[in-house]
Structure formats: structure tokens, C-alpha cells
């Protein structure tokens, strides 16, 4: 029975949606109908949205499968989901206008959490 994954899926997909809205608003503000127009602000908006989508969807699937696996820990689900959400928010902020160190830290946290959750899922299944 799924209990916690939908909450994290909703919050993470809300972040992806907000980044998509930001991309559209940036596109309208800069009057760029297609592509990035060579504008760094447009490039950052597009990449922030795309990067979030590239990581959020696989993570939500991993979290769902982990939650369904034998021996899944509700506390681990909350930690994985909460830390990943924080990492993705930090990454989005850093990509749009924050310091590069925040981007580096949040990107590293994203990868570490993805690998950690994958290993936890494999441990539960094997």
C-alpha cells in the first residue's frame, strides 16, 4: 500500500511545474518564441526545468518501488523524499540565480540520494 510517495511526488512535480511556468514567463518577457534565443536567462530557465524533470521522475519511481518493497522503512522514505526535495529546490534556485557552490552541492546530493535509494531498493529485493 502506497502511503508516503504520493506526497513527495506531488511536491516534486509541483517544483517541475513551477520551473516550467518560469520558463514560459521568461520566454514571454524576453520575447523568444523558439529555442533559447542565445539569451543566458532563457538558457538557465530551460535547463533548470529540464534538469529537474530528468531527476524527479526517476526518483519518484524509485521511491514508489522502494515503498512497495519488503522491509521498506517509513522513516527512510521520509528522509529520502525530504532530502531529495531540498536538494532539488536548492539546485533550481542555484541554476536560476544562486551561487555555483549551491548548485554543486545540490547536484551532488541529488546523485548520492538516487544511488543510495537504488541500493536500498536492491537490498530489499535481493
Give the topology.
Blueprint: H1 5-30, H2 40-68, H3 74-96, H4 100-125
Describe this structure in words.
There is one protein chain. This protein has helices at 5-30, 40-68, 74-96, 100-125. The protein is elongated. It is mainly alpha-helical. The chain has a single domain (5-125), classed as Membrane associated eicosanoid/glutathione metabolism-like domain (Four Helix Bundle (Hemerythrin (Met), subunit A)). Helix content is 83%, strand content 0%. The mean pLDDT is 96.
Short description:
This protein has 126 residues and is mainly alpha-helical.
Question: Quick one: biggest sheet?
Answer: none
Gross CATH architecture: Up-down Bundle
Helix and strand content put the structural class at mainly alpha
Element order: H for helix, E for strand: HHHH
- Portion in helices: over 70%
* Number of individual domains: 1
Strand tally: 0
Instruction: State the shape.
Output: elongated
Distance between the termini: 20 Å
**What is the CATH homologous superfamily assignment?**
Membrane associated eicosanoid/glutathione metabolism-like domain
Subcellular location: Membrane
Organism: Nannocystis pusilla
Protein name: MAPEG family protein
Keywords: Membrane, Transmembrane, Transmembrane helix
